[in-house]
Design goal:
alpha/beta, 8 helices
Amino acid sequence: MGKPLISFAQIKEQDPYFLDIDEIPDWQAQFGNTNPLKLEIGFGMGNFLIEMAAKEPGSNFIGIDFYHKGIRKIITRIKNLQLENIRIVYGDIRSKISILCQDGELETAYINFPDPWPKKRHIKRRLIKPEFINQLAQKLDLEGNVYLATDSESYAYEMLDYFNSETLFQNLDNNKGFIKERIDLPKSKYEKNFINAGEKVFYLEYLRLAAMTSIA
């Protein structure tokens, strides 16, 4: 008979890297510093998040996901690599974004290969929607960045349309389209698989702008 799995409640009690939040954490207290705060939404097995934290020890990283196996694996890797600048949050970002951090507290957000829900009847389940984009904008500091990647062409153009329509974001491509490649960020497991298979990956990068103020 196999060894019983440790519950998330037990992990929360025993592991300082894991949070199952019901209110906004004090991230400065969590990390013990005021370094820039960066978020990966849906980290999967955690390769991108681990590489980013190792590459940028002067930044603090939050990863949020509800994939149990991925959470357990990344926590083990964080311990083995002794990375003190990562915290893992359990949950769906759509329900947790309001309590994930203070408004303006995030410097950067990464959304790598969100589930495209390719079946027509499931498209409504996609993460990237106008309301979510606006909520994400509120959490980002001025001149904060959002980096997105997907291999789904239909989802890519939907993301492009929604983000380009949000006045709090500026597309960093000169033609307000897709970035050809990302050379300064590590490649996730999924990204490597898609590239090796000869499939096209669509990249988007956005800058958080100041809100427009009306003139009396």
